[in-house]
Amino acid sequence: MTMPSFDFVAAKSLDQAAEMAVSLGGKCQIMAGGTDVMPLLRDRLIRPELVVSLREIPGLDKIEFKPGEGLRIGALATLDQIQASPAVRDNLPAVAEAAHYVASKQIRCKGTMAGNICNASPSADTACILIVMGAKILTTKREIQIGDFFKGVKKTCLEPGELVREIFVPELKSGEGSGYLKHAVRKAMDLAIIGVASWVRMDGQKIADCRMAFGGAGVTPLRALQAEKHLKGKTYSEALLEEAAVLAAADAKPISDVRASAEYRSDMIRVYAKRSFKRALETLRS
Amino acid sequence: MAMSSKEYYAEIEKVYKKPEDYELAGKGNAYVRVDAEAKVTGRAKYTDDIDLPGMWYCKLVRSPHAHARIKSIDFTEALKVPGVKGVLTGKDFPEGHNMGNPEAFKELADKEPICREIVRMVGDEVAAVCGVTEEAAEEGMRLVKVEYEVLPAVIDPFEAMNNDAPYVHYKNTNNISMFTTMIGGDPDKAFAEADYTDKHYYMTQQMVHAAIEPHGAAAIYENGEWTIWSTTQGAYVTRFWIAWGLGVPESAVRVIKPHMGGGFGGKLDAFAHELCPAKFAQQLGHPVKCILKRDEVFLGTRTRHPIAFEIETAFTKDGKLLAKRCRHILDGGAYGGSGIAANALSLICATFPYKVDNIDMTARRPYTNKPASGAMRGYSACQVHFAHDVHIEEVAESLGIDSVELRRKNAITPYYTGPTGLQFTTCDFDETLVRAAEAIDWAKRGEIPRGSGTGVGFAGSGFMSGTGFPVLVTPRYSSSSTLVRLNREGYATVFSGANDIGQGCDTVMVMIVAEELGLRMDEVKIVNSDTTLTPWDAGSFGSRVTFLGGNSCRRAVGDAKLKLLTHWGEEWGCKPEDITMKDHRVFVKGDPEKNISYNEACFGYEEKNFGRCISGVGSFAHDGDKDIYVKNRGNYAPAYSFSSSAARVEVDMETGQIELKHFVFAHDCGRPLNTRAVEGQIEGSVLLGLGFTCYEECKYDKDGHHLNPSFRDYRFPTALDMPSIQTILCGKPDPDGPMGAKEAGEGSTAPVGPAIANALTYATGLKFHRLPVDPETIWRGIRQKKLTGAIDVGLEGLEEKFAKMPDVKPFH
């Protein structure tokens, strides 16, 4: 593998990294795990003069769960650490599962969840679950609602020099559950054809509240707003879910590419809307 | 009649160890691979690990067009890059010295080392750049400006055969690179008399080998001689073509094959990445290396032929196969090379594993402007057995006969001779059918409702146990020669030209020598795959290495053993064959007076012979002729292997997702010399067959651009996608195989696809005519069935395409 030449700095703090990013603008590339950046460099799809690594910044790899609040995932926590963390598995199993869906063990040991969302692939495995959980992204400048974060293919709302410090995921309260399911051809090392996440708050048999989001069927991960509206406030039944799933598919704007056709993606949104919602129901907190 | 090789070697074979005395051959886990430690510790040296002082790097400039005329090449900017030292174009190589594969058909060689005027596929080599670092070479490569006149390209093999199609190589040939016919018996009469006849269509896709190690080479030029380390499956054949491409004698080129990370047929041909570093090394006085990137492997090396099939068969009502007509259209891509054998192979494979005495078969291999098709593990057999055994399932259903029974009824039996002269010898196909059916619980398949999402499928196949064709023109059609030296310090050395590409043949050769001499395997040293140090071998292809190379090796050690034992027979007053070699000793059983160590035995021989050490030479020559590829009559291989396989699948009927739950593989490989290696081959075959059937396909846009030349988008199954696998080793030792062995490398791939496809048919209630059957294909089929009731999936107008094919005269 050959790399084009570039300067490399291991930043000592996020502020230092942010400063370099601001002063160099497009000539600077920020890198955490590097699993998305390195292939772009190799293929000359980006030609930065300076690559700034965040990996030596202390304190950014925490994974902390506080009862009554939620989960804080530092920008350098790797996907492997997240999926293996008892705090995540016990309290937010769907987040652990989404992290586990990404690529392979080797990639997960390097790649971070912050990097996964900053790369802003429409089919990013961790995006949908963060959306339905109502996650917040803490940056060097502000707090961003996850729903405002994605702006297009490989585009986020981050301003030049603005870096993600932490991802906050609210805890699941009693009667709440969530699930993320990915549809891919093979069981590992595969990009999602589509993925669907659901979050639900049940009140007995009634769906008190719910959120649903899908990836791989639009320029960003998207909320299935019609489906949510159809489900909210109603008594759960298979038939109701089937109707909602059809509405979710109607919200999807998939494209045809080498991995799957648009119509297949649409129908898989329908199928996985049902399955992820059921998964959420299976994991309701007592 | 001339003496046969068996007669020629008869005296040597008399001192071979008797099967009852084997301590290694066929003894399951008796030994480990000779290269295991080097590989698992990461110390094994592969081509990219060749790192010589002052080494420079070569990168190839490739065409972005599927078909174009090169108008000009401008190196100005490339040469300004610091560290760029040189460039090459097609004109740096002698004109007319095209690359091909078999020397016997050198006139069909059609690939220029670097294109001189016309590029014929995306990725065709247009120029080469040398730099002091790989980065410099790459920057230089990116700055070469090539001006093209884009020409109309032909991507579809049927369109390529049209009279008005743009031509890839030669005018007025309908783009057909090979046309092959195979006729035997009286098929017309058989069809007329049959109770049942049919006509079916199938199609397979373009697939790649996906060897984990990409292709590459390193070259040095010193004292008027090239040394080239290359990822080759055949060092001697590669040397022949490199020397030809450079326009120098073979004596000026040494080719060494280091450790290999897989070949699977993709590394048989000679390529620009070997010739360009060689040329640079001579011009610039530095060693030069060129290692391809993955996308270059996809575009610029070889693929598996996509084949379209029209199959007609005639049966009696009780299921006897009377006759077969078929037409095979093989998409050849832009070049020939090892691909020119595919036609004949596709027809040969269609004549087994079922007896068929009346045949009328043709195969056409049109050129298209896509990456060149070539050999791939289970060469032609994977595609042919997919189509022909899915077809058998359809016949069984039409006739109302259990498909395993139908296969048994028509199964080839020992020493059957096919209608065009294929001479089958040992054959336990029936045993594989019975045992695989038992293992998958075939009798209970009917209890699973059709179309329920669960299915069991079955298939049978055969393969040549050792392609006899030696590729180069050789004395007596010989395809392998081996040297063995006995050393009085207590070891032996085997000089083997066989090319271990990961399959483990170095271990086989060492084991054979150790077994015959009664040495431990670590007392046998191997010198391998180096045209200066080791004798001739045709290469790793056609499942020939164990059978042909192994026999050659055994004869070499037999020759040495005969010399040693003849000497001691004279000393001891007995016949050489009465002397046993075991546990590092040479002795006459039951006679303590005649019992010495191996070291003493060698010392004593040399004492008598003025220090002359003992060496042995062996060879293997198949009793055949290159005309098998021209006239399609005669015997292709010294033996044939047979296999049956059975698959249990589950299909998610909502998404089409496929889960291969369990796979049974029964293989008649004679005596398995190394049970673990055979099981490894079979497990690898299941992986390859699963990828072929459900996952893998090279996709192109209408202009011939490859849409998925990466392991991200070209998806083969991973370890997690693999089923549990039960291997059943069947058959009896083959009298002509080395220690009774037959092949297990390629034949094992052939029945995997049809077994899975037949299982998917049962599980879904659909009929799949085209590979791959991926989840979306199944999902479409299920929807189509719901909407229209139609169950055929993937026919893609094949009937019409075959009907509209223009007539062309057979040639080649």
What does this 3D model show about the protein?
The complex is a heterodimer of chains A (286) and B (812). With 286 residues, chain A is of the alpha+beta class. Helix content of chain A is 36%, strand content 24%. In chain A, the strands form 4 sheets. Chain A has a 5-stranded antiparallel β-sheet with strand order 4-5-10-6-7. A 4-stranded antiparallel β-sheet of chain A has the order 11-12-13-14, with helices on both faces. Chain A starts with 6 loop residues before the first strand and ends with a helix. The mean pLDDT of chain A is 96. Chain B folds into 3 domains: 5-30 and 479-620, 2-Layer Sandwich (Aldehyde Oxidoreductase, domain 4), CATH 3.30.365.10; 47-151 and 215-291, Aldehyde oxidase/xanthine dehydrogenase, a/b hammerhead (Aldehyde Oxidoreductase, domain 3), CATH 3.90.1170.50; 303-469 and 627-803, Aldehyde oxidase/xanthine dehydrogenase, molybdopterin binding domain (Aldehyde Oxidoreductase, domain 4, 2-Layer Sandwich). The radius of gyration of chain B is 27 Å and the shape is globular. Chain B contains 21 helices and 31 strands. The mean pLDDT of chain B is 96. With 812 residues, chain B is of the alpha+beta class.
Topology:
The complex is a heterodimer of chains A (286) and B (812).
Chain A: E1 7-10, H1 14-24, E2 28-31, H2 37-42, E3 50-53, E4 63-66, E5 70-74, H3 79-84, H4 86-91, H5 93-101, H6 105-110, H7 113-119, H8 127-133, E6 136-139, E7 143-145, H9 146-149, E8 150-152, E9 155-156, E10 164-170, E11 176-183, E12 194-203, E13 206-215, E14 222-223, H10 225-231, H11 238-251, H12 262-282
Parallel strand pairs in A: 1-3, 2-3
Antiparallel strand pairs in A: 4-5, 5-10, 6-7, 6-10, 8-9, 11-12, 12-13, 13-14
Chain B: H1 5-8, H2 10-13, H3 36-40, E1 56-62, E2 68-74, H4 76-80, E3 84-88, E4 118-119, E5 125-131, H5 134-143, E6 145-150, H6 157-160, E7 176-184, H7 187-193, E8 196-197, E9 200-203, E10 216-222, E11 225-230, H8 235-246, E12 253-256, H9 272-284, E13 288-291, H10 294-300, E14 303-304, E15 307-315, E16 321-330, H11 342-349, E17 358-366, E18 373-374, H12 381-399, H13 403-410, H14 429-439, E19 454-464, E20 478-487, E21 491-496, H15 505-517, E22 524-528, H16 545-572, E23 579-582, E24 585-588, E25 595-597, H17 598-608, E26 614-621, E27 640-651, E28 658-668, H18 675-695, E29 724-730, H19 752-764, E30 767-768, H20 775-788, E31 792-793, H21 798-803
Parallel strand pairs in B: 1-13, 11-12, 14-18, 16-17, 21-22, 28-29, 30-31
Antiparallel strand pairs in B: 1-5, 2-4, 2-6, 3-5, 7-17, 8-15, 9-15, 10-11, 10-13, 15-16, 19-27, 20-21, 20-26, 23-24, 24-25, 27-28
